[in-house]
Amino acid sequence: MQELNSGKSRPGLKIDRLMLKKYDRPGPRYTSYPTVPEWSGEFTTEDYLGALDGASSATDPLSMYVHIPFCKSRCYYCGCNTCIVRGDDKPGRYIDALAREIKMIGGRLGRRNNLIQLHWGGGTPTYLDEKQIEQLFEAIIGNFTLEDDAEVAIEVDPRVTS
């Protein structure tokens, strides 16, 4: 293995040149796992539920990302999956559906429900009104246990955050 020295700032860090060469190329924007080019119709609902059941026996705490796709307006730089809504109840229906899915997943995972990370991203999670934010948070903490030292983050738009 041919290594690079990382310099004075990180004296113990070694970088493998071959690995760097192998992965030094453009790839899909990392917004999902597996990434979109790997998706297929072969992974069924039964496969998904089986994966959840299999994950229930693990003991490591979980990380949860909640995607809120709604925005007041499109940002010019944004490449995220977003939905511009005005005067529509789409966010309310979305939160209801998320709450049902969170309950289903929490039930499938059984006792493996400790969250070490909780991230709300978007879109603009703070596009939701106070009641919707509370409904979603209650669904999460009603079905999962937020660890005392959990990392909790929410993306905000200061134009719609109070």
Q: Quote the beta fraction.
A: 15-25%
Which value, in Å, is the CA radius of gyration? 20 Å
Largest sheet: 3 strands, parallel
What is the 3D form?
Answer: globular
Tally of contiguous helical segments:
4
List how many beta strands DSSP finds: 7
What is the string of SSEs from the N terminus onward? EEHHEEEHEHE
Distance between the termini: 53 Å
- Class based on secondary structure composition and strand pairing: alpha/beta
Helix content: 25-40%
Task: Please characterize this protein's 3D structure.
The structure is a single chain. By secondary structure, this protein is α/β, with parallel strands linked by helices. It has one domain. The protein is built from 4 helices and 7 strands, in the order ββααβββαβαβ. It has helices at about 15-25, 45-55, 90-110, 130-145, and strands at about 5, 15, 60-70, 70, 85, 115-120, 145-155. The strands form 3 sheets. It has a 3-stranded parallel beta sheet, covered by helices on one side. Helix 3 packs parallel to helix 4 (about 130-145). It is globular. The mean pLDDT is about 85.
